[in-house]
TrEMBL record, chain A:
<keyword id="KW-0067">ATP-binding</keyword>
<keyword id="KW-0547">Nucleotide-binding</keyword>
<dbReference type="GO" id="GO:0015192">
    <property type="term" value="F:L-phenylalanine transmembrane transporter activity"/>
</dbReference>
<dbReference type="GO" id="GO:0016887">
    <property type="term" value="F:ATP hydrolysis activity"/>
</dbReference>
<keyword id="KW-0813">Transport</keyword>
<dbReference type="InterPro" id="IPR032823">
    <property type="entry name" value="BCA_ABC_TP_C"/>
</dbReference>
<feature type="domain" description="ABC transporter">
    <location>
        <begin position="2"/>
        <end position="249"/>
    </location>
</feature>
UniProtKB/TrEMBL annotation, chain B:
<feature type="transmembrane region" description="Helical">
    <location>
        <begin position="37"/>
        <end position="54"/>
    </location>
</feature>
<feature type="transmembrane region" description="Helical">
    <location>
        <begin position="191"/>
        <end position="214"/>
    </location>
</feature>
<dbReference type="GO" id="GO:0022857">
    <property type="term" value="F:transmembrane transporter activity"/>
</dbReference>
<feature type="transmembrane region" description="Helical">
    <location>
        <begin position="226"/>
        <end position="251"/>
    </location>
</feature>
<feature type="transmembrane region" description="Helical">
    <location>
        <begin position="12"/>
        <end position="31"/>
    </location>
</feature>
<keyword id="KW-1003">Cell membrane</keyword>
<dbReference type="Pfam" id="PF02653">
    <property type="entry name" value="BPD_transp_2"/>
</dbReference>
TrEMBL record, chain C:
<feature type="transmembrane region" description="Helical">
    <location>
        <begin position="213"/>
        <end position="236"/>
    </location>
</feature>
<feature type="transmembrane region" description="Helical">
    <location>
        <begin position="109"/>
        <end position="125"/>
    </location>
</feature>
<feature type="transmembrane region" description="Helical">
    <location>
        <begin position="81"/>
        <end position="103"/>
    </location>
</feature>
<feature type="transmembrane region" description="Helical">
    <location>
        <begin position="285"/>
        <end position="308"/>
    </location>
</feature>
<dbReference type="GO" id="GO:0015658">
    <property type="term" value="F:branched-chain amino acid transmembrane transporter activity"/>
</dbReference>
<keyword id="KW-0812">Transmembrane</keyword>
<dbReference type="InterPro" id="IPR001851">
    <property type="entry name" value="ABC_transp_permease"/>
</dbReference>
Length: 273, 288, 330
C-alpha cells in the first residue's frame, strides 16, 4: 500500500531519517518502534507531508506522493493522529470530526455566503461523515459535548475520529496509547483491530511493547534514523541488530520505559519525554 | 564619487543606529517569541529622556544618554514583568495587542501638551566638530554614532558569548523549554533581555536624535524599519539583524539620494515585500 | 439559538424605526458612524476572531474602499452604485495580493507585515496628489443617486437616507459573516485558529482558507469604506492611519473576539464613550492604550465572550442539578 524508497531528511547537518526503504502492507497493522530519537515521528511527518524529504520517494497506492502538501496527502487517503491528545478542546466532539471531513467537501466562501445547494449538501455530508466516524470509535452519544470535557481516552478517540472522518485508507497513529491505563489500552487495541477488520490499514508508533507485540502484524525497527529490521514480531524480537540497538541504548544511559522486545512482552510503558 | 562617499559615510552611521535598535528587538523575539510592537516606543522614550536631560535639566550629553538608557531599561523590564510575562502562555495575538496598547499610550503621553507636545523638536547637537575629508563632510556626531554603535555591538557580542548571563540569553533564544530544564531562571532572563533591548534602543535614539528631529511618532516609523530588518535577517538572529540593519541603511540612503525621499522611510518594507515574496524565511534562515 | 435570533430581529426593528421618531441629527450621525465602523470591526473579526490572525492594515483597506468610491464618482463620473461594488472587488483583490505574500510566512510575521502595508497605503494616499488629492484630500463626494428621493418618500431628511444605507449595509455584513461562520468553510477557519498544524494534518488547506478569509475581511472593510465616502463627503489620508486600525481593534476586543454580536456591541459602546469624552479625541490613546492591555490580560474574550461563558457555566450547572435530581429520584 505504502512504499518508501531511500527516504531521508536532514536538519542542518543531522540526518533525522536516512535511507529508509520499507513498505506498509495493505490491510495489516504495522508498528514502527525504536529507541527515543530513532526518527519514528519524523518518519510519520515525512509520510504525511509535514516535512519535505531531502532524499528518496514515497509511493502510495501506486502514486508518487513525495512532494504533495499535507492536505493533498490527506485527500489521497492518509490520515494521522498526534502523540498527545491534540484536538480542539473548546469545540464539540462533532465539530472536531467535521473538521476532519473538510477535505472531502468542496463548498467555499461564496457557497457559504450564497447558501448554494452545494453548501447545504456539504454541511449535511459533513455531519453524516462525522457522525459515521464517531460511531466507529464509539462516541456517537457524546457528539455534542465539548471535546475538552471528555476523559484522556475519550479525547484520543476524538483524535482518531477526526482522522477517520477524512475517509482514509491508511491511518497513522503516533503513540496512541501514551498516557492510558492498562484497561484503556486494551480497549484501544480492540478498536484498532475493529478498524483493520473494516478494511483500514494502520501504521503506529508506540513504546508500549504489550500493545506492539499483541497487535502488530509487521514491525519496522528504526535506529538513528535508519531501518535496522522489518518483519513479524517473532522475527524482529529475535533479530540481533534489534537487541543490540535496545541494549546499546540502555548501556549508554538509555531511556526510561524501554526494554528490549525480547526481554518482555508485557511492559506497561513508563514516562516518556 | 564624492557624493557616493558622502552617502556611504551617512549610511554607515544610520546602519549603526538601526543595528542597535534591531538587536534589542531580535533578542526579545528570540527569548520571548513575541514581536514587541512597543519597541519603537522605547526608542522614542530614549530620545525624549535624553532631550529632557539636555534641555530641561541642563545635563551634559553623556550623562543624559546614560540616564535615559537606564530609565528606558527599567521601563522595558517592568513591561516584561507586568504584561509580557503574565501573557507568556496566551495566544500570540494577545501580547502583540498589549504591546500595541503600550506603544500608543507612550506616544499619547509624550504628545500631550503638558508633557512634550505633538510637534517636532530639535535636539541641540553636543558635538559640532566638522571635518572635511576629500570633499566628504564628516560630522563629529555621525562619527560618534559609528564609533558608539560599533563599541556597543562588540560589547553585546562579548556579553552573549563570554558571560554566563549572556550565554543564558542565547540558550533561551535557542530553546526556552530546554533552558528551563537545565535550571536556568527563565523569569529573570526575560526581564534582563527586555532591559537590554530598552537600553540599546535608548542609546540608539540618543545618538541619532541630534541629527534627526525628535517627535512622538518617531517610534512608529522606527518600528516598521526594525521589524523589516529582523524579518529579513531571520527573526531572533543576531548576525541577521546587524547585516539587515546595514542593508536597509544603504538601501534608504542611496534610494533617498537617487530616487525619491518621499518614500525613503518605507523602502525597507518595499524590499521586505519583495524578499518575502521570493524567500519566505528571510535572507538568513535560523538553523532550527 | 432561537432566542439569539429573536434578539437580532428585535434590534433590527428598533434600529429601523429610530429615524421615524425624528431624533436629533447628532444622534443619527452617531448611529451612522457606529454602523460604519462596526462593519470594519466585523471584517477584522473574520481574520482575528475566527482565523486567529492579527490584521493591522484594515484602516488602509477601509480607506482604499472610500477613495475608490470617491475617485470613481468624482473623477470618472461613475454612479455610486457601480463604484461601490468596484471598491469592494478592488479591496478583495488587494487583500488577496497581500495574503499571497504575507501568509507565506508564519503567524507573527503576518501582523508585522500588515502593519507595514497599512503605513504604506497611508503614505501612497498621502503622496499621490494627482489621484487622491494628497494632503488636501478629496472634497465633495456626492450622495448616492436616489438616496435623497428615497428619504423624502419616507418624509425624512437625507441624513435619514444615509442612516438606512448604513443599516442595510450593516445587516448585509452581519448576515454574510454569520453565514460564513456557520459553514464548513467557517469551521475550517476556527480549526486554523485553534492550531495550524492540527488543521493541516486534518486535511485543511490552510493557505487557501487564510487567503479567502483575508479577501472576505478586506472586502468588508472596503464595503464600509464606500458608505463612509459618500456619507462624510470628504476624504483624507488619516482614515487609513494605523491609529484608526487600533481604534477598531479596541472596539472588537471590548465587544468580544470571534463572536457575532461583539463587533457591534463594542463599537457602539466605545464610539459612544469617545463621543461623551469629546475633549479627549486627540489623546484618546492615553485611555485606549492601557485599556487594550487590560483587556487582553484580564478579559481577552470581551463582553459578549464573558456573557457566553457565563451562560455556558449556568447550563453546565443546571445540567448538574438535573442529574443530581435524577440520582435522588433513583
Amino acid at each position: 500500500m505504502l512504499e518508501v524508497q531511500d527516504l531521508g531528511i536532514r536538519f542542518g547537518g543531522l540526518h533525522a531519517v536516512k535511507d529508509v526503504t520499507a513498505s506498509i502492507p495493505a490491510g495489516q497493522i504495522t508498528a514502527i518502534i525504536g529507541p527515543n530519537g530513532a526518527g519514528k515521528s519524523t518518519f510519520f511527518n515525512l509520510i504525511s507531508g509535514f516535512y519535505q524529504p531531502t532524499s528518496g520517494r514515497i509511493q502510495f497506492a501506486g502514486e508518487d506522493i513525495t512532494r504533495l502538501k499535507t492536505h493533498e496527502v490527506v485527500s489521497r487517503g492518509i490520515a494521522r493522529t498526534f502523540q498527545t491528545t491534540t484536538i480542539y478542546r473548546e469545540l464539540s466532539v462533532l465539530e472536531n470530526a467535521m473538521i476532519g471531513h473538510r477535505v472531502r467537501t468542496r463548498a467555499g466562501l461564496l457557497d457559504a455566503l450564497l447558501r448554494t445547494g452545494r453548501e447545504r449538501q456539504d454541511v449535511q455530508g459533513s455531519r453524516d461523515g462525522a457522525m459515521a466516524a464517531l460511531t466507529r470509535v464509539g462516541l456517537a452519544a457524546q457528539a455534542h459535548l465539548p471535546a475538552g470535557a471528555l476523559t484522556q481516552e475519550g479525547q484520543k478517540r476524538v483524535g482518531i475520529a477526526m482522522a477517520l472522518s477524512s475517509d482514509p485508507k491508511l491511518l497513522l497513529l503516533d503513540e496512541p496509547a501514551a498516557g492510558m491505563n492498562p484497561e484503556e489500552t486494551v480497549n484501544l487495541m480492540a478498536l484498532i483491530r475493529e478498524l483493520v477488520a473494516g478494511g483500514l490499514t494502520v501504521a503506529l508508533v508506540e513504546h508500549k511493547m504489550s500493545l506492539v507485540m499483541g497487535l502488530a502484524d509487521q514491525i519496522l525497527v528504526l535506529h538513528h534514523g535508519q531501518k535496522i529490521a522489518q518483519g513479524t514480531p517473532a522475527q524482529v524480537s529475535r533479530d540481533p541488530a534489534v537487541i543490540e540497538a535496545y541494549l546499546g541504548s540502555h548501556a549508554h544511559g538509555g531511556q526510561m520505559g524501554q526494554t528490549t522486545p525480547a526481554e518482555t512482552t508485557l511492559q506497561k510503558g513508563g514516562a516518556h519525554a | 564619487m564624492t557624493l557616493f562617499l558622502q552617502q556611504l559615510f551617512n549610511a554607515a552611521a544610520l546602519g549603526g543606529v538601526y543595528a542597535l535598535v534591531a538587536l534589542g528587538l531580535t533578542l526579545v523575539y528570540g527569548v520571548m517569541r513575541v514581536p514587541n510592537f512597543a519597541h519603537g516606543g522605547l526608542y522614542m522614550l530614549g530620545a525624549y529622556f535624553t532631550f529632557a536631560g539636555l534641555t530641561r535639566l541642563g545635563w551634559p550629553y553623556l550623562l543624559s544618554l546614560l540616564v535615559a538608557a537606564l530609565l528606558v531599561a527599567a521601563i522595558a523590564a517592568l513591561m516584561e514583568r507586568f504584561i509580557f510575562y503574565p501573557l507568556r502562555d496566551a495566544p500570540h495575538v494577545q501580547p502583540m495587542i498589549a504591546a500595541i496598547g503600550v506603544l500608543f499610550f507612550m506616544e499619547a503621553a509624550i504628545a500631550h501638551p503638558r508633557v512634550f507636545g505633538p510637534e517636532f523638536q530639535t535636539m541641540p547637537s553636543p558635538i559640532n566638530t566638522i571635518v572635511n575629508v576629500g570633499g566628504v563632510t564628516v560630522t563629529g556626531q555621525r562619527l560618534l554614532v559609528i564609533a558608539a554603535s560599533v563599541l556597543v555591538v562588540f560589547g553585546l557580542n562579548y556579553f552573549l558569548k563570554r558571560t554566563l548571563t549572556g550565554a543564558t540569553i542565547e540558550a533561551m533564544s535557542q530553546n526556552r523549554q530546554g533552558a528551563r530544564l537545565v535550571g536556568i531562571d527563565t523569569n529573570r532572563v526575560g526581564m534582563l533581555t527586555f532591559a537590554i533591548s530598552g537600553a540599546l534602543a535608548a542609546v540608539a535614539a540618543a545618538l541619532i536624535a541630534p541629527i534627526n528631529l525628535v517627535s512622538p511618532s518617531m517610534g512608529e516609523v522606527m518600528n516598521l524599519k526594525v521589524f523589516a530588518i529582523i524579518i529579513l535577517g531571520g527573526m531572533g538572529s543576531v548576525p541577521g539583524a546587524i547585516v539587515g540593519a546595514f542593508l536597509l541603511a544603504f538601501a534608504e540612503t542611496f534610494g533617498g539620494a537617487y530616487i525619491s525621499t518621499d518614500f525613503a522611510d518605507v523602502i525597507g518594507f518595499a524590499v521586505l515585500v519583495l524578499v518575502l515574496a521570493l524567500k519566505p524565511q528571510g535572507l538568513f534562515r535560523r538553523s532550527a | 439559538m432561537k432566542r439569539v435570533s429573536w434578539g437580532w430581529a428585535a434590534l433590527l426593528v428598533v434600529a429601523a424605526l429610530l429615524p421615524l421618531l425624528r431624533p436629533s441629527g447628532y444622534l443619527l450621525d452617531i448611529g451612522v458612524n457606529i454602523m460604519i465602523f462596526a462593519m470594519v470591526a466585523y471584517g477584522m473579526n473574520v481574520l482575528l476572531g475566527y482565523t486567529g490572525q492579527l490584521p493591522l492594515a484594515h484602516a488602509g483597506f477601509f480607506a482604499i474602499g472610500a477613495y475608490t468610491v470617491g475617485i470613481l464618482t468624482l473623477k470618472a463620473g461613475w454612479s455610486f452604485w457601480l463604484a461601490w461594488p468596484a471598491a469592494v472587488l478592488l479591496c478583495a483583490a488587494l487583500g488577496l495580493l497581500l495574503g499571497l505574500v504575507a501568509f507565506r510566512t508564519r503567524g507573527d510575521v503576518f501582523a508585522i507585515f500588515t502593519l507595514g502595508v497599512g503605513v504604506i497605503i497611508m503614505l501612497v494616499i498621502n503622496k499621490w496628489d494627482s489621484l487622491t488629492g494628497g494632503n488636501e484630500g478629496l472634497n465633495g463626494v456626492n450622495p448616492p443617486a436616489g438616496l435623497e428621493a428615497f428619504a423624502q418618500a419616507l418624509g425624512l431628511k437625507l441624513s435619514a437616507g444615509f442612516y438606512y444605507l448604513a443599516l442595510v449595509s450593516l445587516v448585509l455584513t452581519v448576515v454574510a459573516v454569520a453565514r460564513a461562520r456557520g459553514s464548513t468553510f467557517g469551521l475550517s477557519l476556527i480549526a486554523i485558529r485553534g492550531g495550524e498544524d492540527l488543521a493541516r494534518s486534518a486535511g485543511i488547506n490552510v493557505y487557501a482558507h487564510k487567503l479567502r478569509a483575508m479577501m472576505f475581511s478586506t472586502a468588508i472593510a472596503g464595503f464600509a469604506g464606500g458608505v463612509y465616502a459618500v456619507y462624510i463627503g470628504f476624504l483624507g489620508s488619516a482614515a487609513a492611519s494605523p491609529a484608526q486600525t487600533f481604534t477598531i481593534l479596541l472596539y472588537l476586543l471590548v465587544g468580544g473576539l470571534g463572536t457575532l454580536a461583539g463587533p457591534l456591541l463594542g463599537t457602539a459602546l466605545m464610539y459612544g464613550l469617545t463621543q461623551a469624552l469629546q475633549g479627549l479625541e486627540d489623546y484618546r490613546f492615553l485611555i485606549f492604550g492601557p485599556l487594550l492591555v487590560v483587556l487582553v490580560m484580564f478579559a481577552p474574550q470581551g463582553l459578549v465572550g464573558l456573557w457566553l461563558r457565563e451562560r455556558a457555566r449556568r447550563a453546565v450547572r443546571a445540567q448538574g442539578r438535573a442529574q443530581a435530581q435524577e440520582v435522588n429520584r433513583a
